[in-house]
Amino acid sequence: MSPVEDAAAEKPRHRPSRAPRTPMPERDARERAMTFDEVGLGYTEEMAVAEANRCIQCKNPTCIEGCPVNIDIKSFIAGIIEGDYTRAIAVLKERNALPAVCGRVCPQEEQCEASCVLARKGEPVAIGRLERWLGDFDLSCDLEHRCAPVVGEPSGRRVAVVGSGPAGLACAGELRRFGHAVTVFESLHAPGGVLTYGIPEFRLPKAIVQAEIEMLEVMGVELVTDVVVGATYTLDDLLGEEGFDAVFVGNGAGLPMFLGVPGENLNGVYSANEFLTRVNLMKAYEFPTYDTPVARGRKVAVVGGGNVAMDAARTAKRLGAEEVFLVYRRSEDEMPARREEVHHAREEGIEFKMLCSPAEIVGRDGFVTGMVATRMELTEPDASGRRAPVCVLDSDFTIECDTVIIALGTRANPLLSQTTPDLEVSSRGYIVTDEDGATNKPGVFAGGDIVTGSATVILAMGAGKKAAQAIDRWLDATKRS
Amino acid sequence: MFPIVYQRQLSASVFEMGVTAPAIARKARAGQFLMLRVDEHGERIPLTFSDWSAEEGWVRFIFMRVGKTTHQLSHLVAGDSLVDVVGPLGVATHVEGLGRVAVMGGGVGAAVAYPVARAMAEAGAEVTVILGARNRELLILEDEFRALPIKELIVMTDDGSAGEKGLVTAPLKRLCEAGEIDSSMAIGPAIMMKFCAATTKEFDVPITVSLNPIMVDGTGMCGACRVSVGGETKFGCVDGPDFDGHAVDFEQLMSRQRVYSDIEREADADFSKECSCHL
Ligand SMILES: Cc1cc2nc3c(=O)[nH]c(=O)nc-3n(C[C@H](O)[C@H](O)[C@H](O)COP(=O)(O)OP(=O)(O)OC[C@H]3O[C@@H](n4cnc5c(N)ncnc54)[C@H](O)[C@@H]3O)c2cc1C
Ligand SMILES: Cc1cc2nc3c(=O)[nH]c(=O)nc-3n(C[C@H](O)[C@H](O)[C@H](O)COP(=O)(O)OP(=O)(O)OC[C@H]3O[C@@H](n4cnc5c(N)ncnc54)[C@H](O)[C@@H]3O)c2cc1C
Ligand code: SF4
Ligand code: FES
């Protein structure tokens, strides 16, 4: 029996409430489409307790299997039910170093919540919202009262972490628990990876990312910005002259893809990465207080159907666009974006143009004036059940717009692998690792988007943490030999 | 923080600055650049290394005051600091095995041409440098170039106030015609590089150009810097900044450089109003 179950045995039996799922308050759609303030307002304590009480504390909690890092969901919810928030947070942080972040951006509807027994009746426990509430509760405490993992006795070994996205941060935190000295190198001027430059303020406030990173610094993680590994130092420099015993590479998949259609280099055509970086990282929405400009389009066409496309479309709306079109070549059902984001985008007045594929971007005097799109239809499902989009003959039409944002996904940035020729990468440039994150190069580990291609925050964090454990074992083994 | 250790004014609007950045200084090569931010609200701007010392741990760059960021930068002196300096970025200029080469530096492009010409000369090339400027006041680094082990320095000004009167393309054409160069490199405003490319094309003399598209991160993650080269889209910051001048779409480059001109001008005008230097 685990200590939690032990304790529960002595307490009066938990009687789950049969109330419907507790809704989370949100900023009004009309109001929020004008500001970058966060959309979801989070639970109050009462709401969190009410929602936690819906959990039936299953004997075989299937929710845990649905979580990519197997958070002991049942126990942390038990902590909320019993009012022992400190324990609840400790349980959460045992597996997930950034709960306030994951509570906001994880696709819970496909993960833990999809596996909750109550999901069968259509109303799973709002695990994500509870996680968010606990994470925020922890962040609202003074730094010294926050739940910090115990840092291990100094091991005398030094590990370099390349990239400060979720993979790198999770790896760094875990390495400190083993007592290794950790230096995180970040090429941009601010840490956080996609959490900082990609996901917008209205979905993930930067103050939260900042507070989580401060916690890591309190744990003794050294953070060095403005260092491009592969340029400022090579991987071999880190393992050689710079004196690191091992390296974790979590540099993400940051190279934006373009359509390859005529007119793509006209002024007013952005990759989603550029558009979101200008706005989130460089704070272009506060130009001229901040010096970086961004085009404030009146009519904006966003190409793509994932989270990145939703973020770009909703950001364009907040910059004052009168009309924002989302152009996607399949139908809404196939869109990879989270349902919640699709729903929010619709509420905010984003116009969906489904089954359309861009054929050309047209312009005048070097600036975009429109996009020619071809109508598509879906084939019958093939053996794998997938329906392919095919062009409808002579169906081209023009969407009038002054800005086009391309959100077709990203690929591996070759900057680091090019200067490390002996590091094995796949044909698409992703770093090849074993299950634990070890690469073919001794002492070099990798994880996150640079290994899997664009995935999710929690998978990147899981990979970072797993690699930290492998690094610990590797350091141990190399010490003895 | 990156302390400024050196600052001097080269002409009315051109300045040279040195900052402490030991890790970057160890890796810098001719033709590569850095990105910097002046302060926490600042834009990231790219500037090419004009010089560096691995031993002493500094890098230098030369910039022309054209807008708000370079204006702010022009007020900083030794003892001040920059919040961010990142590099070295971009692919270093190819300097090996060039034979007889002409290097054209137009305006502030002379700053970039200087370490390039030096590296080419050190690698054994026979280098002819052609500097172009609007007038004598805007001509920079003449003495430094004269001190290099190069074959010849030709100075051109639009008004004839220094060297010969005319554009850099005039002596370039002479060299091509006389068959005195095997290859060439042009660094300067897009329009100048475009004409140098046209001149050498006639004689089938290869030309490398150092492009300066607008950049955001400088590490290949945004695509703001994309340029068309031989009909293919390339990223200026990681595939360049050097490209085959005969394949570059200069019209597109110039158009893309103008994308924010209007709002940038307003920002600088606002800044200048508040700024005590009244420039
Ligand atoms: C707009 C957008 C919205 C998203 N929304 C969601 C969502 O709602 N939910 C979800 O789960 N996932 C979402 N994702 C995906 C998720 O953010 C990524 O899967 C995750 O961030 C990957 O983490 P990572 O640590 O591998 O890489 P990244 O977050 O990309 O971090 C890599 C870091 O390494 C740095 N770096 C790169 N090269 C170098 C180098 N050579 N030297 C030093 N540093 C370097 C980069 O600057 C960056 O800071 C979204 C992604 C985007 C772009
Ligand atoms: C690889 C590269 C190397 C360069 N090297 C030098 C150099 O050694 N010396 C030098 O004086 N200049 C150099 N430049 C140009 C320099 O970066 C711009 O002059 C500077 O960014 C202007 O900033 P600003 O705020 O003062 O002016 P702004 O008012 O912002 O802009 C004036 C003009 O500068 C250009 N520009 C603006 N922002 C950027 C940006 N983020 N990236 C690139 N160009 C921009 C645009 O064409 C703009 O119209 C280089 C540019 C590139 C891409
Ligand atoms: S499956 Fe649902 S009800 Fe069961 S323990 Fe997990 S969250 Fe609670
Ligand atoms: S400046 Fe962002 S990719 Fe080149």
List the helices and strands and how they pair.
The complex is a heterodimer of chains A (481) and B (279).
Chain A: H1 3-10, H2 29-32, H3 45-52, H4 63-66, H5 73-81, H6 85-95, H7 99-105, H8 112-115, H9 127-140, E1 158-162, H10 166-177, E2 181-185, H11 194-197, H12 206-218, E3 222-224, H13 235-239, E4 246-249, E5 255-256, E6 269-271, H14 272-281, E7 299-303, H15 307-318, E8 323-328, H16 339-347, E9 351-354, E10 356-364, E11 367-378, E12 389-391, E13 397-400, E14 403-406, E15 410-411, H17 415-418, E16 444-446, H18 449-452, H19 457-480
Parallel strand pairs in A: 1-2, 1-4, 2-3, 4-16, 6-14, 7-8, 7-14, 8-9
Antiparallel strand pairs in A: 5-15, 10-11, 11-12, 11-13
Helix pairs in contact in A: 3-5, 3-9, 5-6, 6-9, 7-9, 10-19, 14-15
Chain B: E1 2-11, E2 14-20, H1 22-27, E3 33-37, E4 45-53, E5 58-64, H2 68-74, E6 81-82, E7 84-89, E8 100-106, H3 109-122, E9 126-133, H4 142-146, E10 152-157, E11 164-165, H5 169-177, E12 183-187, H6 190-202, E13 207-210, E14 226-229, E15 232-235, E16 242-244, H7 250-257, H8 261-274
Parallel strand pairs in B: 8-9, 8-12, 9-10, 10-11, 12-13
Antiparallel strand pairs in B: 1-2, 1-6, 2-5, 3-4, 3-7, 4-5, 13-16, 14-15
Helix pairs in contact in B: 5-6
The site of FE2/S2 (inorganic) cluster has 13 residues of chain B, from loops.
